[in-house]
Amino acid sequence: MENQTFYYDNKIVKNFAYATLFWGVIGMVVGLLLALQFIWPALTFGIPYTTFGRIRPIHTNAVIFAFVGNGMFTGIYYSLQRLCKARMFNDLLSKINFWGWQLIIVLAAVSFAGGMTTGKEYAELEWPIDLLVAVIWLVFGANMIGTIIKRRTQHIYVAIWFYIATFVTITVLHVVNSLAIPVSLFKSYPIYAGVQDALVQWWYGHNAVAFFLTTPFLGLMYYYLPKAANRPIYSYRLSIVHFWALIFLYIWAGPHHLLYSALPGWAQSLGVVFSVMLIAPSWGGMVNGLLTLRGAWDRVREDPVLKFMVVAVTAYGMSTFEGPMMSTKTVNAISHFTDWTVGHAHIGALGWNGFLTFAVLYYLIPRMFQTQLFSRKMANLHFWIGTLGIIFYAVPLYWGAITQASMWKEFTADGFLKYPNFLETVTQLQPMYATRAIGGALYIVGILLGLYNLILTIRAGKFLPEEAASAPALTRVEGKRGSGEGIHRWLERRPVQFILVALVAILIGGLIEIVPLYLVKTNIPTIASVKPYTPLELQGRDIYVREGCYTCHSQQVRPFRSETERYGEYAKAGEYVYDHPFQWGSKRNGPDLSREGVVSGRQYKPNSWHYNHMMNPQRLNEQSIMPVYKWLIYDDLDISTTPRKIRVMQFLGVPYPQGYDKIANDDLMIQARGIADDLKSQGIQVEPTKEIIAMIAYLQRLGKDVHAAGMPTATITGK
Amino acid sequence: MLRDVFKSIGGIENYGLISMIIFVFFFALLILHTFSLKRKDVDDFSRMPLDDVSKESDDIQDI
């Protein structure tokens, strides 16, 4: 058949590559600022826009969706065209994908700094930006699927299967987890509450790791590793099993983020079982990647692209061993809420995603600019500094995690907590936090070296925007299976059917876990004493969400003696039924707050303490790493939103009386005056209309309802 | 109807076991299936990334 000449679109690849480098630097620098705030909390500069709770989502979103996301698009747009022997389906869609994605990133950064957040980790974007994400993601999907359909190769290579799974699953995850009812343009409440919200959120959160940080990068591995090593993939058979096992199993594993929580035990067990089984396909992929280098290991010594790839795949292997290990209840009892999780996440982000992204950039930028890499030595230096950075980042955090968890759990011979003051367990970690910051700084130095090297490469070369290629047109083949053609062989040339089967594979786990939690009432036992928040508490809760308090404080006491002794009654599913969104948190840089309002409890503090603490935490305790929140004291509470908030809550099933929205602000002011009067009696003059009053009201409510139920403090395990 | 079905489910704790059985059964079949693939096809597919050399990039050396 006659060859057709066509042109690969390198311009879109170049744009995404530039964006990857730009956002990589931004995201990592914000991360370094966060790391330094652990050592010098004054580095928030006393202003709202740079507090830990607000810029932590900027860091995570910048690294995940801006750096890694643009890196993913770079790699996919380059490899997809070549694997399909076709230009991208539509140049306009490519441009919309690129500019739309950058707009989302900018809007995300601005809105997070402004305190506009849903309060759900890695899904913090408010509803208008969520809608934009959905549109741009569908544009990407349409462009990708269109390219696959107009391809000039009969067979769809394994890398593309992973790209397909990425598109399909992220679409489902994003839509389901983002369902919310708007209160205003920048505020919404999720349709889910409490335990259900937690399950949906971590089903999303875990699978965002799986299908945004893992599957697309496995696709990139299956393309770029053979290219860089000039070797075929080690085992195509293994890649088939790897793909289906991975996408089928991954979707079930979300509940391992909620072990020992109020989530029903059966859902926790499902999460553990499938997380442990995930080792098999994950390591299957890692082995397939590393064995592709058979006969080419001598080149790893010289070639920085292969060096980055080998460490990336090894980091993938490490984190996919560590992940299942952390999912077992025994290890999770130690690792959860500590820096272990942060260390684990950064082995994946810096090692697997970061290094594979740089391998891809070092591979394709010289090719698109028709030149050699400016300096191989500089790339090697980048590699070694980056590797050292990862080690200096992760090791102290593992050390710190075990130190802190041990301190949380240690009792004296007389049966009292040895370290009852939470702050002691934070102060102990300061050397580890300092070393972690050095590790992060080293990684950034590596990136800057890489950036410089690539800029010099670009300047030395000549960009080829339209790369000519030729291939025969795709012969139309009967849609039905040919004689002797296996099911999978047939599926590998039928993109639409492939998408549908992948969709079924990823839906099974989600449906089996999530649907029963909604429909079987016994999964969420109600507690009669749990009442809706008062209007002032609701406003205070929204400030708590706005400031990202959940990034440092949990609201979930696990059923361990060490936790019930420290905080009080362990968490029950029924106490969260009005929490839109849930605020359980995933990390304790400060103590758990879910029993903060129990007057007879161990965590209780008077109103004046909260006021002074927000004003200047270091005045109450010099070693505190809590940032100041002075603006809560000076800023007026916007009570014009109260009626709308009440109405949305009513719509979501919160049992406020009919017509309560009209009188809610009256109740709000009565409660606010009560707190202001109490503060006045302690010598603190503050208007009842200030935000601090609402925040205090919310904190003083936490745990009261469960305590009112008269539940005895119980200890489930001896841990 | 769906709601009634789910409400009447007993032994929801067996989900994990059932899921594992489905997984093991399905993927045992998948593994067997991969061994039925023709060797030539498998070799060709595994070389696909190496077959996409465009006109210009022929001359570009590895870094």
Number of helices of chain A: 27
List the chains of the largest interface with their residue counts: A-B, 68 and 40 residues
The pLDDT mean of chain B sits at: 69
Characterize the quaternary organization of these chains.
heterodimer
CATH architecture of the largest domain in chain A: Up-down Bundle
Low-confidence stretches of chain B: 55-63
Q: For the largest beta sheet of chain A, what order do the strands appear in spatially?
A: 1-4
**Kindly, what is the distance between the CA atoms of the first and last residues of chain B, rounded to a whole number of angstroms?**
63 Å
Biggest sheet statistics of chain B? none
Instruction: Summarize the biggest pleated sheet of chain A.
Output: 2 strands, antiparallel
Principal-axes shape call of chain A: globular
Key features?
heterodimer; A: 719 residues; mainly alpha; Cytochrome C Oxidase, Chain A; Cytochrome Bc1 Complex, Chain D, domain 2; two-stranded antiparallel sheet; 27 helices; globular; disordered C terminus; B: 63 residues; elongated
Short description:
Chain A is mainly alpha-helical and 719 residues long. Chain A is 63% helix and 3% strand.
Strand and helix map with partners:
The complex is a heterodimer of chains A (719) and B (63).
Chain A: E1 3-9, H1 10-37, H2 52-84, H3 91-113, H4 127-149, H5 158-178, E2 180-184, E3 187-190, H6 194-229, H7 236-250, H8 265-277, H9 279-291, H10 297-300, H11 304-327, H12 329-335, H13 339-368, H14 376-409, H15 422-427, H16 430-460, E4 466-472, H17 487-491, H18 495-519, H19 535-546, H20 561-566, H21 607-615, H22 617-620, H23 631-634, H24 642-651, H25 660-681, H26 691-701, H27 704-708
Antiparallel strand pairs in A: 1-4, 2-3
Helix pairs in contact in A: 1-2, 1-3, 1-16, 2-3, 2-6, 2-13, 3-4, 4-5, 5-6, 5-7, 5-18, 6-11, 6-13, 6-18, 7-9, 7-18, 8-11, 9-11, 11-13, 11-14, 13-14, 13-16, 14-16, 19-26, 21-26, 24-25, 25-26
Chain B: H1 2-7, H2 15-35, H3 39-46
